[in-house]
Specification:
Elements lengths: L1 H14 L3 E5 L5 H9 L4 E3 L4 H13 L3 E7 H7 L1 H9 L6 E5 L17 H5 L6 E3 L4 H13 L4 E5 L20 E4 L4 E5 L4 H12 L5 E5 L2 E3 L3 H10 L2 E9 L4 H11 L5 E7 L10 H7 L4 H11 L1
Parallel strand pairs: 1-2, 1-3, 3-4, 4-6, 5-6, 8-9, 8-11, 11-12
Antiparallel strand pairs: 5-10, 7-9
């Protein structure tokens, strides 16, 4: 996903001199190559995320389009007040890109995991929140974020995430995408955890359970129309997220169900009001916390 982001940003920098890449010593070799080619459009602020967000607001006030890129936990949590007051309260045209959403920073533990960012940020006015599921979707989110005149937050992974799309497709903000059709139950999912769900779906098929998988790539503004239609078709729906179930995607789905008096039971799958347990590889951390394909399979089968 990181490579997809940098490639998409490079295309924007090439065509628009106002696009600025803002880093915090978190770039890659690709970023260094871009900086050599476009030194005036690449700024490295070092480990100074709050300052960087504040400067990005000033750059936007001068007509620039800054893409603020850094470790997700440092951006969503450390810079929260600056995002709220300097970016969103002023409705500045700043794009915030957090790398390492969910449990991606596996070996560094819960201080670096980003499993509460959706709940922390979605209540801030004026902020569009995108949660791509694959490298191709990351590129499309970057392109759409550039078109939005206002604050956008994109949460991306960093662990060689699988591509879930077989071919190019049209991406629209606030438009959920049905990845797999099925009649047994609907699962709303966001982010790269969708690849684990796809593996679990194959296992469930052997038990005669056909899942309908809906990719929620826009957390805010939510595709309420689609969620309402999907929930009205089923008596039981699931939400899956690499995030705390409190305030995350599941809570947003629950709001739609309750507000529209829909007769569907929602089962939330994610971190249940806890920080992630253990240390290890990304795959190991997901397994330890019940977010690998086998555990997802068992959870859905249990409730079916």
């Amino acid at each position: 996903m990181q490579k997809a982001y940098i490639n998409a940003l490079y295309e924007l920098i090439c065509k628009d001199k106002n696009v600025i890449s803002c880093l915090s010593d978190s770039g890659t070799d690709y970023d260094e190559l871009i900086a050599r080619e476009f030194p005036d459009q690449c700024l490295n602020f070092g480990i100074s995320e709050n300052n960087k967000v504040g400067v990005a607001s000033g750059l936007a006030a001068c007509g620039k389009i800054p893409f603020v890129y850094t470790t997700n936990a440092f951006l969503a949590y450390r810079s929260y007040e600056f995002i709220r007051d300097d970016i969103c309260m002023q409705n500045r045209n700043v794009k915030l890109v957090g790398m390492g959403c969910g449990l991606s920073w596996s070996t560094l533990g819960p201080t670096h995991h980003t499993t509460e960012d959706i709940s922390a940020l979605k209540s801030i006015p004026n902020l569009t929140i995108l949660s791509p599921a694959s490298p191709l979707e990351v590129a499309k989110c970057v392109e759409k974020a550039y078109e939005v005149k206002g604050p956008v937050y994109i949460r991306i992974g960093m662990s060689n995430e699988k591509e879930i799309y077989e071919e190019d497709y049209k991406f629209e903000i606030s438009k959920n995408i049905v990845i797999k059709d099925g009649k047994s139950a609907t699962v709303f999912v966001t982010g790269s955890i969708i690849s684990e769900l796809q593996d679990a779906q194959e296992m469930l098929l052997k038990d005669g359970i056909e899942l309908r998988i809906v990719n929620v790539n826009t957390i805010k503004p939510l595709d309420v129309k689609n969620i309402k239609e999907e929930c009205e078709k089923q008596t039981k729906v699931f939400s899956l997220e690499e995030h705390n179930v409190i305030g995350g995607l599941g809570s947003s789905i629950a709001d739609v169900i309750a507000t529209n008096a829909i007769n569907a039971k929602l089962i939330k799958i994610g971190l249940n009001d806890t920080f992630a347990n253990g240390y290890g590889t990304y795959s190991e951390i997901k397994m330890m916390n019940g977010l690998d394909a086998k555990n997802i399979y068992e959870m859905i089968k249990k409730h079916m």
